[in-house]
Write a structure and sequence with these properties.
Radius of gyration: 16 Å
Strand content: 25-35%
Shape: globular
Largest sheet: 9 strands, mixed
Number of helices: 7
Structural class: alpha/beta
Order of helices and strands: EHEHEHEEHEEHEHHE
Length: 210
């Protein structure tokens, strides 16, 4: 792990992820924007996940590995990755999805130039377990409304799969939310809280492959 504070922290919660983990990590390490740390947070995996993680820690100083002593559940492991982060900006990644090489760069361009934007994210494409494209998914979460109440109303009317929170956010904004908690649809509530803090802007190109 580098001792210099990175601009961006990328948190990847992991549990028994050996099947797709290599590809997901490689997609992050191949980002065109390079000033980031990748936090691999292992939720007490029982397969070959720890060995895969340690291999990347040895290969790249931006990667570091944390292992929970016991399984805390998926949502709280997501939250743990943020609690361990140091960057001014934050994004989540998952151990079985893929990010386009320009995801961080494109989203960061938006959020650094727009103080009124709390979340920048790309378009989503649905893929199968071997990476074959199934089709696009319209998140319908571009929220340019000036009033927080109008953004919240638009979000509640549109939210489905919560892909948008795999974009880039300000860490200071995330600290003002309850993050992800151990109950159904806590990711929707997180997006609702963020919508009250600022606008959501979608980058008009596919950057996330779910």
């Amino acid at each position: 792990m580098t001792t210099t504070r990175p601009a961006v922290s990328i948190g990847m919660p992991i549990y028994n992820a050996e099947e797709h983990l290599d590809l997901s990590i490689q997609a992050i390490l191949s980002q065109t924007y390079t000033d980031f740390e990748l936090i691999l947070c292992d939720n007490a995996s029982t397969d070959g996940t720890p060995e895969i993680c340690q291999r990347y820690v040895a290969q790249d100083k931006r990667v570091w590995y944390h292992r929970n002593q016991e399984n805390v559940g998926g949502p709280l492991n997501f939250t743990k990755t943020f609690e361990l982060s140091r960057g001014k900006y934050f994004k989540w990644a998952t151990s079985d999805d893929l990010s386009a090489p320009t995801l961080v760069e494109k989203c960061l361009e938006v959020i650094e130039s727009r103080p009124d934007v709390a979340l920048a994210f790309g378009k989503t494409e649905i893929i199968d377990e071997v990476g074959t494209t199934i089709g696009p998914y319209d998140d319908k979460l571009d929220l340019p409304q000036a009033r927080p109440s109008e953004r919240l109303r638009a979000l509640l009317a549109s939210v489905g799969l919560c892909n948008a929170h795999y974009g880039v956010m300000r860490s200071e904004d995330l600290k003002r939310t309850r993050l992800l908690r151990d109950f159904f649809a806590s990711d929707c509530i997180l997006l609702a809280e963020l919508s009250l803090l600022g606008k959501f802007q979608q980058v008009p190109e596919v950057l996330f492959y779910r």
